[in-house]
Amino acid sequence: MNTKLPLLAFFTFLIFNLFNAKAQSLTATVIDSVSQQPIPFASVQLKDKWAISNEEGSFNLVFGDVIKESDSLIISIMGYETLSKPISEFTTTKIALVPKAIELREVIVSNKNYTADEIMDFVEDNLEKNYSNDLSKKRLFHRTSNFDRWTQSDFKVKKSSIDVLNQKFIDSIIYTVPKNDSFYSEIVGDLYGNHDEELQKFNLLKASKLYDKSTEFDYDKIEERFNNILKENVTPGSYFKIKSGLLSFKIDSDEVSTLFEEDVDSTDVAAVNKELEEKKKSKEEQQKNYGNWKRDQLAKIFSGLPTQEDSKLNFIDKQRKYDYTLQEFTFLGDNPVYVISFKPDGSADYEGTLYVNADDFAVIQVDYSNVKPTSKFSLLGISTNNYLSKGKIIYNKGKDGFYGVRYFESENGMRVGVRRPLKIIEKNKIVKGRNKQNELSGNMDFVIISVEKNEMIVFESENITQATYDGFTENNTISPTYMPKYDPTFWEGYAIMEPNTAIKEFTATSAE
Predict the structure, then answer these.
(1) How many CA atoms lie within 13 A of 8 on its CB side?
(2) What is the sign, positive or negative, of the torsion defined by CA atoms of 47, 52, 56, 62?
């Protein structure tokens, strides 16, 4: 008895019922048909819905409408044959793309052979033609991944006139600081505006944060321990003289606890207190207005794109600072593409690759990385080094003929170091005979490395009128939902970028 046809019909029926379920989504992994390795950043499109595979080749495509058996799923990426076939034929969770052998077409051979510099001139000349600054409404997903790592945390006590403020106590405080920490946040929302950082409005629809609460540094407990010590050992009416190398300032005893939350570099007590109050207010605003905080992050992304004027990613509008080389000619689907590498010509910060549409000279993809620190500072034992800045940007041509960002990824790393002496002297003008009451002195040696990764996908974009923009009022009262471990059901029904393995397997040691 032949059971192949009934089984095929059954699985086809099952697949379509899965597609047309409430979530209406497809999750799969794009792989190389030869090496069987995952293919990151492949474009996946079904009608007007779009997704992109993550660094592990996985994607999640959410459908807005009920699909038909004849609807085609299109998967494309440079270097591979574009795959387009009815969605009913996708019956596995792995989708293989065939590497593409690139051959120069006769039409290209007969065209004028432009140099890389000439192509880049055309790119700059056509920026306004290819990239609109009109108002739009963009439905997007944004994920931020933060990683902090302390590579050095030490304070050697040289002198302490308060017995309990000894090396053992200081070491116990340092021990409570988590040496490695990670934090993930994800949001879906609608961004209104253009590329002007000051003209953005945001409608936050849903948000989550994923981290381990047990690794949070408990400032309140540390502050309580110090306050108890001060109450028992500090004379009423005292003030403290803080010295660190050439820096010195005064602060009253009842304000000492704030020192453990702030970096103070002023000799003006009023200015110090104002700084403390502003930082406290900023933290409260961040908690109350999470959507506004995220809006500002997104605004910086759009205003800092390399196709924008005066961008720090200046390898398009500051061509004199770079050397360009035409590497090859290829195709993205049916679109001819120039592949141009760039590197600094002098003091520029970046190297990378630009993919330029040969028909309209629009940059459709950028891969970049820094060749040296983008900024650094070192003075009196305090140093900062922005040692990492890399990313990928993919543009897509809209129905209006203009290109807009479809996918944005950036990874930035900073090293901060403090290596200097610290002396805290308690003084009192009320006590007769001895102005100096207590002293704690030692040497600080702290180094922290922080890395932040941003991933953003624009799933839908539509032009809007000034009246629509003016008529929209922000009401970002949504707070992120805390998750001690990743919950795949949280984003059911929403288009997002498929998380990587590290996020999927993240589990907090404490769920409090």
Answers:
(1) 7
(2) negative
Give which of 201, 164, 206 is closest to 185, Cα–Cα: 206
Beta-ladder partners of 251: 240
* 167, two tokens: 């090396």
Residue 112 tokens read as 């004028």
- 248 phi and psi angles, rounded to 5 deg: -155, 140
**φ, ψ of residue 5 in degrees (nearest 5):** -65, -50
Amino acid at 184: Y
- Cα separation, 99 vs 311, in Å, equals 35
Strands (E), 119-272: 136-160, 180-193, 201-211, 239-244, 247-252
Side-chain half-sphere exposure of 429, counting CA atoms within 13 A: 3
Residues 111-126: tens digit of each pLDDT = 568 999 999 999 999 9
**Structure-token match 């360009």, residue found:** 324
pTM of the model: 0.80
Q: What is the DSSP letter of 21?
A: S
Query: φ and ψ at 491, to 5 degrees?
Result: -100, 20
- Per-residue pLDDT tens for 150-191? 898 888 888 888 777 788 888 887 877 778 889 999 999 999
